[in-house]
Specification:
Layout: E1 5-11, H1 22-34, E2 44-48, H2 52-55, H3 61-68, E3 75-79, H4 86-97, E4 103-111, H5 117-125, H6 130-134, H7 139-153, H8 158-177, H9 191-195, E5 202-204, E6 207-208, E7 217-225, E8 231-240, H10 255-268, E9 279-282, H11 288-297, H12 303-312, H13 338-350, E10 365-372, E11 377-385, H14 408-415
Helix pairs in contact: 1-3, 4-13, 11-12
Length: about 425
């Protein structure tokens, strides 16, 4: 398998509403890339959008995008895994790693403003299994159910859980406010606003409005190549869980995140992700509780460690593991484009191109995570600065094998997360 690199990465601003057509919106970041690269050398286009037929009534979108970009002769494919936008990049990765293509573009985005708010909610809810929907589950209530079970299993009282969600929401808005491309750019919230039921009404216990992400019009594009560049895609993982929440083995966490992470870490040579020097995270926090759950499911922390990390600032820009410094999904949620755009934000960090006030000091590795549906179609991607090998199973000093690591068994016992090895 060939090594795969990210040569260019561009995104649009996140809009509450844009007058651009969906095709023009998807092409905008790709055109920025093609202004720097000969279009005739692009061999493929992979486009991630979720609900185009419902939102805009369009079909055959990959062909329209490729034609608009002047890429006739290239292969073009639409990818749909609900709001898991990583999969366009995964298809691009496969095309290059296999040697079939040398340069391809992964594009992701959505134009959600094309329909009224109530219709938008109905369309988004279609990713929930029909039987679960018949029982009254929506996307917010599905995540609320998972969150309450997480709190029960980990013995967190509802008042304590709500207090933690308050901290998570205020933090997310603070970082999104400093991101000029974010939908909530310039908008922060205070403790008083979060606790005001008029400004922050309940959605589904324990969720309130400020715990939820916006719906956005936005797009991003990434040029993937076999030509050595500064950022390598060193690991990818993709996994699904049961369509019905009540048919899953566990509902106190997202098992598909753990499966996808194991695959990505194994390919990247990671045994203990928390040990990585210069690690940053971009994880899918569409609802506040997911910020906490994802930290555990990605194998970064145990539950008590994750709680402390949020409380003590470990995840802040100047902390040990900067997480969602772009604002996470308070930056945007454009369904099929969100995961791809969060990878673009990670690339900005790794290249030292993040907005003033958001740039992390000397990032080297990024773990990026994207959720599709109610936690059942999930991808994890590992990026690193292509300078020197920094993660090897054989590096016994930094990543000791299980039988030489006295903390490993305790970690597995507390999290249920076991890292794969050959």
């Amino acid at each position: 398998m060939l090594k795969v690199y990210i040569q260019q990465a561009e995104r649009t601003k996140a809009y509450k509403k844009t007058d651009l057509s969906l095709v023009d919106l998807l092409c905008e970041p790709a055109q920025k890339i093609l202004s720097k690269v000969d279009p005739s050398r692009i061999e493929g286009v992979f486009v991630s959008v979720q609900n185009i037929s419902s939102f805009t009534g369009e079909g055959n979108i990959a062909t329209k995008v490729a034609d608009n970009l002047g890429l006739r002769g290239a292969e073009a494919e639409r990818v749909e895994t609900a709001s898991n936008g990583h999969t366009a990049l995964l298809r691009a990765f496969d095309a290059v790693a296999s040697g079939r293509c040398k340069r391809v573009i992964a594009i992701g985005g959505e134009k959600m403003s094309a329909v009224p708010r109530e219709e938008r909610s109905r369309i988004i809810g279609e990713v929930v299994d029909p039987i679960d929907r018949a029982c009254g589950l929506t996307m917010p209530s599905a995540i609320a159910l998972i969150s309450l079970e997480y709190a029960r299993v980990n013995k967190v009282s509802l008042p304590d859980f709500k207090a933690l969600l308050e901290k998570i929401a205020i933090r997310a808005y603070r970082y999104a406010a400093a991101n000029p491309d974010a939908q909530f750019a310039g908008k922060t919230i205070t403790t008083e606003e979060y606790r005001d039921a008029m400004r922050n009404p309940p959605v589904a216990t324990p969720l309130s409005v400020f715990d939820s992400c916006p719906t956005s019009d936005a797009a991003g594009a990434i040029l993937v190549t076999n030509k050595e560049s500064d950022i390598e895609i060193s690991g990818v993982g993709h996994a699904v869980d049961g369509s019905r929440i009540f048919d899953r083995y566990y509902i106190d966490h997202l098992e598909a995140t753990r499966w996808a992470a194991r695959k990505a870490y194994k390919q990247a040579g990671i045994l203990h992700p928390r040990d990585l020097s210069g690690l940053i995270l971009e994880q899918h926090d569409a609802f506040g509780p997911l910020f906490l759950l994802n930290l555990v499911d990605l194998g970064i922390f145990t539950h008590p460690e994750a709680m402390k990390a949020i409380e003590k600032g470990t995840l802040d820009r100047d902390g040990e593991i900067p997480t969602n410094i772009s604002g996470g999904l308070k930056d945007l949620h454009a369904l099929g484009g969100t995961g791809l755009i969060k990878i673009i934000e990670a690339c900005r960090q790794l290249r030292g191109e993040a907005p003033p006030g958001l740039q992390v000091k000397k990032p080297k590795v990024a773990i990026c995570h994207s959720i599709g549906g109610p936690g059942n179609n999930i991808a994890v991607t590992v990026l690193d600065i292509n300078l020197e090998p920094i993660r090897l199973f054989t590096d016994l000093g930094k990543h000791p094998p299980k039988d030489r690591d006295p903390q490993y068994e305790n970690f597995v016992r507390e999290t249920g997360f076991e890292f794969e090895r050959d």
